[in-house]
Amino acid sequence: MRVAFVSDIHSNIDAFVTVLRFLETKNVDQIYVAGDILGYYYNAAEVVDLCMRRENIYCIRGNHDTNFLNALSNDAVMEKYTVRYGTSFKKAQAELSSAQIEWIRTLPSKLHIKLSNLRITVAHGSVVEEDAYIYPDASPELFMRQVLHSDITVLGHTHHTFIWCKDNKYLINPGSVGQPRDQGSLASAVVLDISNRAIIPFKIKFDPTNLKKDISKFDPDKEYLLSVLDRN
Known about the structure:
Blueprint: E1 2-6, H1 13-25, E2 30-33, H2 44-53, E3 57-59, H3 63-72, H4 75-85, H5 88-95, H6 98-105, E4 111-115, E5 118-122, H7 140-146, E6 152-154, E7 161-166, E8 169-174, E9 186-193, E10 198-205, H8 209-218, H9 223-227
Parallel strand pairs: 1-2, 2-3, 5-6, 6-8
Antiparallel strand pairs: 1-9, 4-5, 7-8, 9-10
């Protein structure tokens, strides 16, 4: 059995579809999304639809997903996030169905999975805090606290891929599908083979052409949304 871990899709449908097609070539049975389905970019409805329809995709909530839900009921919060991140939340509000929004509301903050004899935890920022940042250069002590109760812990949030291991316990960040910050326009995923515990990271090239057009259309003043896609 093979499972894939991805994170931080951020409403980037072209990157998400590209990653899903790639994972099909790797004979992946299940896909776990470590949060941040929404935010930054513009195709929330299409991304959520894929996650809802695919029976082998399991998702948790990330901080941007929580931020979106909070903004729905508070115009001042919506405006704050629009100024900070661009118009993605407003576009999502206009296009997501009530059923899709309810699905987002019901997402758990963490998943605890047992596959064969492996205990796996999937969280977003850290195992205790959705908005915590654990980067590849964090302390070993901080890493160890993430794997106390699992054989494998998967985190997202930082958009940086890393794999750390001590005493046969693994901490994995698969990086970002929709807004990679280590190498622009190279989406990230990690595949775990349950039979032999092989953990393989992948970088998957996606075409940012349509996304760049959308950024120029919806958020021409948010230069970062463009520049991160070309980061080397």
